[in-house]
Amino acid sequence: MHSLRFGLCYDFRNPPDSGLSHPQLYQAALRQIQWADKSGFDLIWFTEHHFVDDGYLPSWIPVASAAAALTSKVRFGTDICLLPFNHPVRLAEDMAVLDNLSGGRVEVGVGMGYAPHEFRGFGIPVARRVSLMEEGIEVLQRCFTGEKFSYSGKRYQLEDVRITPGYVQAGGPPLWIAAMSEAGALRAARYGTNFLPQGRKSGSFDPWVNAVTKAGKQTTNHRIGIIRGILPTPDRDRDWPKVRIAERYRMSLYNRFFAESGEGLGGEGEAVPQNWVVGNVDECVKELVSFVRRFGITDIVSWGIPPGIHPDEMAAPLELLIVEVIPKVRAALANPSGAALDAT
Question: pTM of this prediction?
Fold first, then answer.
């Protein structure tokens, strides 16, 4: 069984009324990441989008590299890196450099994107995204072996490729695949990667569990991760309203993308929860323990700096999270009287 890891996620969205310049936000995030590393968080994740007015992070490797120089323990990953907009060999080279800079602390979660304006901006037809995604995964997996290879696909034709420098991590950085649909879930199962479920349980999570099980494998052989905001606070009425405004702002962009693309997290039935966990320490612990047991989650990443929230305002809840909530969650899950993690 995998250990339970907690972390913080950054998208670097900077609303016009935040009071911070983009350089100030980047420096504040790096300071917070350095604090998170010293305080005992396990993960720092980044998320990628392009051509967004508020500066949504378009390039995560430079930020992860800067953060790697300031830290010694946290692992860096993505939820998600948009693979159709990243040539897989170039991405594999960048991650090899980051793997060496960080001493083997890099992972990567990939998705295929859905926002039409991004595909127009890169001059890529949306119709190519599935082939770019799947061939990109296959190329990355070959790159991560460290061996020389050639590849002949619909989108990529490669000859005598070997990534140098070699990776610190044997087999290269751990690979994750995100899914909002059954097709994405089956893709993650087929390629045998870690899993980032989103959307409806019946549409993404259940098909992945069923496919992995049908293949005669165990879901517990894979890590299952999610971004889910956590706000421990002794005064919900004081602290939640401003974070709720930030969350509504954050989701308004995705709702626009969903409307423009005709896709989304919709449908009927139970969702894989990504709503904020808000309450006092014990309330947060109770909800997180239930969540982990329900879905077999191994990696939970909260927001470090919600858009429009001054970084200093997150200091107290993040301190509560790492000092009180996370240890109590781990202790509760280690209790033999509690049910084992169940991904079914």
Answer: 0.95
CA 205 from centre of chain: 16
What's the full length of the chain, in residues? Answer: 344
Q: Which residue, chain included where needed, has tokens 């990441």?
A: 33
The single residue listed with the structure tokens 């107290």 is 316
Residues 6+ apart with CB under 8 A from 67: 30, 33, 34, 44, 74, 76
Please, what are the domains in the chain?
Answer: 5-334 (3.20.20.30)
The pairs formed by 86-90 with CB atoms below 8 angstroms and a separation of 24 or more are 86/136, 88/135, 88/136, 88/137, 88/139, 88/140, 88/143, 88/156, 89/139, 89/143, 89/158, 89/161, 89/163
What the block records as the tokens of 203 is: 């549409």
Neighbours of 123 (CB within 10 A): 6
Contacts of 163 (CB under 8 A, 6+ apart): 89, 92, 93, 96, 143, 144, 146
Q: Of all helices (H) and strands (E), which one includes residue 252?
A: helix 236-261
Those residues with Cβ within 8 angstroms of residue 327's Cβ, 6 or more apart along the chain or in another chain? none
Question: How does pLDDT run along the chain (344 residues), one tens digit per residue?
Answer: 789 999 999 999 999 999 999 999 999 999 999 999 999 999 999 999 999 999 999 999 999 999 999 999 999 999 999 999 999 999 999 999 999 999 999 999 999 999 999 999 999 999 999 999 999 999 999 999 999 999 999 999 999 999 999 999 999 999 999 999 999 999 999 999 999 999 999 999 999 999 999 999 999 999 999 999 999 999 999 999 999 999 999 999 999 999 999 987 767 789 999 999 999 999 999 999 999 999 999 999 999 999 999 999 999 999 999 999 999 999 999 986 644 333 33
Rounded Cα distance between 281 and 330, Å, is: 13
